[in-house]
Specification:
Length: 200
């Protein structure tokens, strides 16, 4: 499977937001300057297409989704009754790796994806190894017994101060109570620009 293996901080600087928790400090210090030797000098005004492209790239990189998969999500969202952009974000937010991240089991979506891929997550008491699995309302997500005493997992659970209202968690078991509202989804994304990009 194709995936980006280069420096993650470079992507964070390119999009102007911290894609991982480790990048938050770096983005604040450098003022989210674009990467590269001349990143701080080149201040080009983006066209409408440029803004749409950047928004699409930001969403892809934030959720760790490749181009083909992202386009498939948009196609699925366009078939659902209602706003396409909102349906797209719902599909991305209810991915298993994102739910694991939102529950506070880990500190980033990349870590959550690795946890799922390695078989450390159970959905309704069954081992699940597909990060893109769409979690349904009422389903429970739990960390495997083998990983419950893991130091990093314990630290992540302690660090999470507020849990989204659409989720519930008791110790290392979480549950999806409902589909999240727009206010509870990723605020740094303008979904209308993404829809506009694909409707050209």
């Amino acid at each position: 499977m194709a995936r980006y293996t280069g420096p993650k901080r470079r992507l964070s600087r390119r999009e102007g937001i911290a894609l991982t928790s480790k990048d938050i400090r770096a983005i604040e210090q450098k003022g989210a300057l674009p990467p590269g030797q001349h990143g701080g000098k080149m201040r080009r005004r983006l066209s409408e297409y440029g803004l749409q492209l950047r928004e699409k790239q930001k969403a892809k990189r934030l959720y760790g989704v490749l181009e083909k998969q992202f386009k498939n999500y948009l196609t699925s969202a366009s078939k659902v009754k209602g706003a396409t952009g909102l349906s797209l974000l719902e599909l991305l937010e209810t991915r298993l790796d994102n739910v694991v991240y939102r529950l506070g089991f880990v500190k980033s979506r990349a870590e959550a994806r690795q946890l799922v891929s390695h078989g450390h997550i159970k959905v309704m008491d069954k081992k699940m190894t597909i990060p893109s699995y769409k979690v349904k309302i009422g389903e429970t997500i739990a960390i495997s017994d083998k990983l419950r005493d893991n130091t990093q997992v314990k630290m992540s659970l302690e660090d999470l101060t507020t849990l989204p209202e659409w989720l519930d968690r008791k110790a290392t078991v979480g549950k999806v109570l409902r589909i999240p509202n727009r206010e509870e989804m990723e605020q740094s994304i303008d979904e209308q620009l993404i829809v506009g990009y694909y409707s050209r």
